[in-house]
Amino acid sequence: MSSEERLDEDLRAELDLLRQEIAALKKSESTCREQIECLQKGKEFFREISLNSSDIILVTDRNGMIIYASPSLERFLGYKPSEIIGMSGFDFILPVDLARAFDDYAKAVVSSEIIPNAFRVRHKDGSERLLEGVGRNLLDQPSVNGFVMNVRDVTERRRAEEKVRESEKRLADIVDFLPDATFAIDREGRIIAWNRAIEVLTGKAAGEMIGKGNFEYAVPFYGERRPILIDLALQGGGEIEQRYFFVQRNGDIVIAETTAPMMRGASKYLWGKARALFDGSDGIAGAIESIRDITDLTKAEEERELLRRQLQRSRQMEAVATLAGGIAHDFNNILGAISGYIDMSMAYLKKEDRIYSYLRTMNGAAERAKDLVCKLLVFSRETKREFRPFRVSLVAGDALRVLETTLPENIRARMKNSAERDIVRGDPAQIHRAFMNLCDNAVCAMKERGGLLEIALRCRNAGNQEGAAGLSTLPPGRYLEVAVKDTGTGIEAKDMEHIFDPFFTTKNPGQGTGMGLPVVYGTVKNHGGKVTVESEVGRGTTVRVILPLLEEPEAL
Which of 19, 249, 477, 552 has the fewest CB atoms nearer than 10 Å to its CB? Predict the structure, then answer.
């Protein structure tokens, strides 16, 4: 092969090799172009994310110099990223937080853990902003080779939180000086206010209660965690409403009354008022409840009502007594004439005469009528009074002994005397008759099933709140109470209003005149005392005779 031919062959080989290299370069160029496009897209993607992110992304080197800042920096702090590249991140932190920022950075240098932080910085316009975020050490990663921090501007959120805290503090201060026991909760049910009055009412200090949820505020009142009136203001009716005696609504305000059995060992009658609390956007922020212990007020109202009924009853009885007295006198005069003519007629007849037996029957009826008139006169206090000092225990004991001789086998009787003194001024015969009437009523009430008759004596003080129950209409002083108790059938509520009315009786016709209790009432009233009756159907009756004691007993 000639030299020319060899040269031509070498040139062709070189040309083929060159073509292959060009093809490889073109392929490599295409791959690079694709990689550049991908990188450019990634860069744009990252830029869009960082630009629109609610966080600021910062990267610093080992010494804290800023080597990257996301575009969102300008939106939050007013600086363009290019303005702070190469500056120290500590240059923007306020002096008050610098020491803590240095400390956090020192920890980050030796740790790979995510470290949370919060610090105040200066905005480009000079205002103060609060940033909160997390940082991580990525110095060992060549692609970053720095510290990456995600920070967020929480200035407005903190201001809102501070306003809420200030509002809660103002609410707590206002609540603390309210005279009624008052507390407030937030929308999650946590206690945010617990005033001095409710501390006194429940025995629970504010320090024990503030911040607690899960119905902790119900425990001092009911001994358990459960919804109460304040929750009714937030949630509406249902089961909560059924726990109260009555519920009254006035717009957003809910008012109710209930009893709290666990109030420091004693049951209390409580009045409550609750309403929801709203924030500036009309959203529910929580609720507040005021509680008032009306136990004493309720008792006072009940006592006033009882006193009013007693006074009304007393006036009615006075009117009936006056009427009965007038009728009794007239009736007595009529009976005198009838009895006189019967006696005269019988004097002209022999005992064997049939008319004589008729007149004797008429005379017996007239005598019974006279006895009834005597009872009416006692009830109306028209009888002649012969008062002297006597021991009531002796009179009561004698009445019981007389009664015991005729008691059925299924009825027991006893007397209990716990009175230090029992001398009163009065007519022992009238008091004896009163006790006999009461004992007779008690025995009648126990005839069917038997039971126990008890006469109990004790001393009482009118004008002393501790021992004055039932004595409210009597002048202050020392009194003797004689309680005649039975375990019989009791008196129905509808009959209690009439038990002192003359001729009122629940006994069968012919078994009672209806003058027993009226005579007792008149006798005791005539002695400056009082009669009270307590009864429960199926459980029995207690009649209390209350008589004024002699302060300085005279010689018996």
Answer: 552
* Number of residues that make up the chain: 556
pLDDT confidence of residue 183? 92
Determine which of 282-286, 437-441, 523-527 has the lowest per-residue pLDDT on average. Answer: 282-286
Q: What is the pLDDT of residues 64-90, one digit of tens each?
A: 888 888 888 888 888 888 888 888 888
pLDDT for position 191: 93
The Cα 379–Cα 502 span in angstroms is 8
Number of domains in the chain: 5
Do 499 and 551 fall within a single domain? yes
pLDDT tens per residue across span 361-376: 787 777 766 666 665 6
Query: What is the predicted pLDDT for the residue at 321?
Result: 59
- Backbone phi, psi, residue 503, to 5°: 75, 5
Q: Are residues 455 and 393 part of one domain?
A: yes
Residue 180 has pLDDT above 70, yes or no: yes
Mean pLDDT of 293-300: 76
DSSP 8-state code for residue 214: T
Residue 148 reports pLDDT greater than 70: yes
537 near 492, Cβ under 8 Å?
A: yes
Report the alpha-carbon distance of residue 302 to residue 294 in Å, rounded.
12
**H or E element that contains 74:** helix 72-77
516-526 vs 354-379: helix crossing angle, rounded to 10: 40
- Beta sheet of 266-278, edge-to-edge order: 191-194, 181-186, 284-293, 266-278, 253-263, 246-250
Query: 531 - beta bridge partners?
Result: 545
Taking each helix axis as running N to C, give the angle between helix 428-445 and helix 392-404, from 0 to 180 degrees, rounded to the nearest 10: 40
Nearest to 508 by CA among 450, 420, 447, 435: 447
Q: Domain range spanning residue 399?
A: 385-556
Question: Do residues 509 and 400 share a domain?
Answer: yes
pTM: 0.42
Nearest to 130 by CA among 121, 117, 141: 121
Task: Check which CATH number belongs to the domain holding 87 and give it.
Answer: 3.30.450.20
φ, ψ at 264 (rounded to 5°): 55, 45
